[in-house]
Design brief:
The protein is mainly alpha-helical and about 425 residues long. It has helices at about 5-20, 25-35, 40-50, 55-65, 65-70, 75-90, 95-105, 110-125, 130-140, 150-160, 165-180, 185-195, 200-210, 210-215, 220-235, 240-250, 255-270, 280-290, 300-310, 315-325, 335-355, 355-365, 380-400.
Length: about 425
């Protein structure tokens, strides 16, 4: 590793292991490595990737200048491939960045940082097929004795789950946890497996029994609590789901996009099932308001619109709609996803909130083939499918003079 000292290399390895297990503290450890060795290329690379490989345009803005620093440092071939992939990402070529990381992994299949970033980009772009094939392509180079193998297993397990192979996904997540019980990434995979196999009781038990491993000092705690709340919704326990929202989301209001996304998705589901979110919606809409003009990620836009419609904050909903109307013409990745998914989904949510269920149905039924482009997991994108089901139900109810009781099944929620 170019520019490393023994002490800096040890700090880097700890930072990388922390990041792979989805635990807090990776940024602080990599900063310590750079204080020890400012010209340590891979420490600079890790610091940059922690900022760049996500949905937050502000974090990407902070990471962008780091490319200048990296361009001035001497680097080996593998390190230069990382920098080239970063440059493609910043230039809005996510597919180009994925291809470059794929080339890097062909040459260096045990570069676990490259694998983690490529895996993240496959997830962000909704590329389920590549999510699976990418990890499978490097598995033969790994063994249980290789540091980081538990994270590779957890990545593979998640890709299996997203491609419907739930039995193998569960087995590999458990294998990862046998190697590293504090791998929060693997616990998250199990949450998905329990959800997609309709085992909410088992999901609640597992998450409660292993709460210390994923709920403390991890970057995924709020999201796994979201999964636990969805298990309660699947069992019809709306009050329990709201209590989890209050204890783990509302009690510690966050401006992190991932936390805002989970908050919107949970309150929307609770509302659709007849729960009363009350002033929680207004609080959440206020936190989303600073993100209206981001014009960067359609997945974010849809969840911001959920909050504005849930709060009946039509002024902010209209503001976001205007931003999306402009963004759809941009020659960018966000422009393309806005045209195909973001704008019609946002308008469908407004129609749903206004009680125009027929229009919501019309807009939402056009989305299934394109909704994958939002990125995220099947469980997260399912919010649009659930909204369509509820809109159809309400449309049918309005068409009949007599009230008809219908059971609403929360599919994969």
């Amino acid at each position: 590793m170019t520019g490393a000292t023994p002490a800096a290399a040890e700090l880097y390895e700890r930072a990388l292991a922390t990041s792979l297990a989805w635990r807090n503290g990776a940024a602080e450890l990599v900063d310590a490595a750079l204080r020890e060795a400012p010209a340590f290329v891979m420490a600079q690379v890790l610091k940059a990737w922690l900022l760049l490989a996500g949905r937050d345009v502000r974090r990407i803005g902070v990471g962008r200048p780091m490319l200048g620093t990296l361009a001035r440092l001497p680097a080996n071939a593998r390190e230069r491939l990382h920098v080239a992939a970063m440059r493609a990402l910043i230039d809005d070529s996510y597919e180009g960045a994925k291809r470059m990381l794929g080339d890097l992994l062909q040459r260096y299949p045990t570069d676990v940082l490259a694998l983690q970033i490529a895996h993240s980009l496959d997830y962000l772009t909704g590329d389920s097929s590549c999510l699976k094939s990418r990890v499978q392509a490097v598995l033969s180079a790994w063994s249980p004795q290789t540091p980081g193998y538990d994270a590779v297993l957890a990545m593979h397990a998640f890709s299996l789950e997203e491609n419907g192979d739930f039995v193998r996904a569960e087995r590999e997540a458990l294998e990862a946890l046998a190697l590293n019980p504090k791998n929060a990434r693997a616990h998250h995979v199990l949450a998905h497996v329990f959800e997609m196999t309709n085992r909410p009781d088992a999901g609640i038990r597992w998450m409660r029994d292993h709460e210390a491993a994923w709920a403390t000092d991890t970057i995924v705690a709020v999201h796994v609590w979201w999964h636990v709340a969805l298990f309660h919704l699947a069992l019809g326990r709306l009050g329990d789901a709201l209590a989890l929202y209050d204890d783990h989301i509302r009690a510690n209001p966050s401006s992190e996009l991932s936390d805002l996304i989970d908050a919107s998705a949970l309150l929307w589901r609770i509302d659709m099932l007849g729960g009363a979110a009350g002033t929680r919606w207004q609080e959440l809409a206020e936190r989303w308001s600073a993100r209206i003009d981001d014009a960067f990620c359609s997945f974010n836009d849809v969840h911001a619109m959920l909050a504005f419609v849930g709060a009946r904050d039509w002024q902010r909903a209209r503001r976001l709609d205007r931003v999306l109307s402009r963004s759809r013409w941009l020659p960018t990745r966000h422009g393309a996803t806005t045209r195909r998914v973001g704008l019609p989904a946002g308008r469908a949510l407004i129609a749903f909130g206004r009680g125009n269920y027929a229009r919501a149905v019309k807009l939402l039924t056009r989305l299934p083939a394109a909704s994958q482009q939002l990125g995220g997991s099947h469980a997260q994108r399912d919010v649009l499918h659930l909204t369509l089901l509820r809109a159809i139900e309400r449309t049918r109810r309005e068409a009949r003079p007599l009230p008809i009781k219908r059971a609403f099944t929360v599919a994969h929620a």
